[in-house]
Design goal:
Blueprint lengths: L1 H11 L6 H8 L6 H16 L2 E11 L28 H13 L4 E6 L6 H17 L4 E5 L7 H8 L3 E3 L9 H4 L5 H13 L3 E3 L2 E3 L5 H14 L3 E6 L16 H14 L4 E4 L3 H5 L3 H5 L4 E3 L11 H10 L3 E2 L14 H4 L49 H4 L40
Parallel strand pairs: 1-2, 1-9, 1-10, 2-3, 3-4, 4-5, 6-7, 7-8, 8-9
Helix pairs in contact: 1-3, 2-9, 2-10, 3-10, 4-5, 5-6, 9-10
This protein binds iron/sulfur cluster.
Iron/sulfur cluster binds next to loops.
């Protein structure tokens, strides 16, 4: 079809599609779906080959958040029966991180619930980063701690963080419908702070909250404009006990179309399938690997994923390979944070940036968007997000203002696939990795 030929050509040349073309991807039929996946797959292979980057989540502080993000199981008023605990000790976090790295993860994502860190929290996280790097010097570390105040990003960078995650989650126009305690602009500001400090920006979205196709295209174009190095795509997990518990809006086919649209708009950026992968893509997960080049290994923040070994088996069976510590994630033309700005000497070509970040490439500046463009925001979904997992995220409490976020799902509710995390960080049981 002409549309897919056009989008493939643009993706191979790193040209931005039009909004109409992006919307047309979301409007394709099931009969066209494999052609859509194949076209996005060509773009994915051009920039990322058959590599799959594995990321591993460590939830440093779970639940009890004062913010009201309606998708989040950790939010104020959430009735979801998630694990609730305060800051893990550096040794506990390092133990969990090491399990993920041994399982194949190249990046560890350190997440804490809350509006944002205090300066003392930054000290805690710095100690945790040091403990992890002592055991795993080459691992990339992404922090996800919420809204940043002045100079906190610089301190995280100096402590050895390679990236910072803060998701935009949804369009600017609908942001106020999902959260009232902070704004879309707050999120953009935090991403800008992280970017300006030389941290690789990781910022993504949550699909399935009742948003329109136009909202999805808006947020994905905004992420491209912000210069996010990695874009986690979360699929809402409608947790019981959260305001969005009834929002079962996604099918595997819909998820694949969303991933393809994200890939066409961000052809040379790490696209990560984040929370909700198992719940919504289900047996179609391997097709998602033809579009995205990154996933989380094992469990999410407050929900459980499939077994880590099942992730590895899936990658191998689908004909892909796990990206190694010494391999660059992003194509050469994109600037690598690590080398670029500042001085982080992380290991390997990818160096610190990893996922989101960079790869080996070149120095500063190059492919990255100016700091001012970056921005993003927030805590949020699962994967990366600091907070919430998609899965959990679904949780939330009352939707802002009465909540009209979603329209009430009309797809089959697969509550049987939603499992609250009961192992790994914050428990006596071994992590899933
Ligand atoms: S997404 Fe982050 S800020 Fe929002 S409620 Fe969840 S933990 Fe709190």
């Amino acid at each position: 079809m002409d549309l897919l030929d056009t989008l493939t050509a643009k993706g191979l040349n790193r040209e931005l599609p039009t909004r109409e073309e992006a919307l047309a991807v979301l409007a394709t039929t099931d009969d066209e779906l494999l052609d859509v996946v194949a076209a996005a797959g060509r773009v994915r292979r051009q920039w990322f080959g058959r590599r799959v980057k594995l990321n591993y989540l460590v939830n440093l502080k779970s639940g009890l958040c004062p913010e009201d993000c309606s998708y989040c199981s950790q939010r104020l008023g959430s009735k979801a029966e998630i694990l609730k605990y305060t800051w893990l000790k550096p040794g506990e976090a390092a133990e969990a991180a090491t399990a993920g790295v041994k399982g194949g993860a190249k990046r560890v994502c350190l997440v804490a619930s809350g509006r944002g860190p205090t300066d003392r929290d930054i000290d805690r996280v710095a100690g945790t980063i040091a403990a992890i790097k002592e055991q795993e010097p080459a691992v990339e570390i992404c922090a996800c701690l919420g809204l940043l105040s002045d100079n906190q990003a610089e301190r995280l960078r100096a402590a050895g963080a390679d990236a910072y995650n803060h998701n935009l989650n949804t369009s600017e126009g609908t942001y106020g419908d999902i959260t009232t305690t902070h704004t879309y602009a707050d999120r953009v500001d935090t991403v800008s702070k992280a970017h300006g400090a030389g941290l690789s920006a990781c910022s993504g979205l949550i699909a399935g909250m009742g948003e329109s196709d136009e909202d999805l295209v808006d947020v994905v174009f905004a992420l491209r404009e912000l210069g996010s190095d990695s874009v986690p795509v979360n699929f809402l997990i409608p947790f019981e006990g959260t305001p969005l518990a009834k929002e079962w809006n996604l099918t595997p086919q819909r998820c694949l179309r969303i991933l393809a649209m994200v890939r066409f708009v961000n052809p040379d950026v790490e696209v990560r399938i984040a929370g909700g992968r198992e719940v919504h893509l289900r047996s179609m997960q391997p097709l998602g690997l033809h579009i995205a080049n990154s996933i989380f290994l094992g469990d999410y923040l407050t929900s459980e994923g499939q077994a880590g070994q099942a992730d590895l088996d899936m990658i191998k069976d689908a004909g892909f390979e796990v990206e190694g510590q010494g391999e660059a994630t992003l194509p050469r033309h994109r600037a690598e944070l690590g080398s670029a700005c500042g001085g982080h000497d992380t290991a390997g070509a990818d160096g610190g940036n990893g996922g989101g970040c960079g790869t080996g490439g070149g120095g500063c500046g190059s492919g990255r968007a100016p700091a001012a463009e970056a921005g993003c925001g927030g805590h949020g979904t699962d994967g990366c997000g600091p907070c919430g997992e998609p899965g959990d995220e679904a949780t939330g409490g009352e939707v802002a203002g009465g909540g009209a976020v979603a329209g009430g799902g009309d797809e089959e509710a697969r509550t049987d696939l939603v499992r609250v995390r009961r192992r790994g960080a914050g428990t006596e049981l071994a992590p899933n990795a």
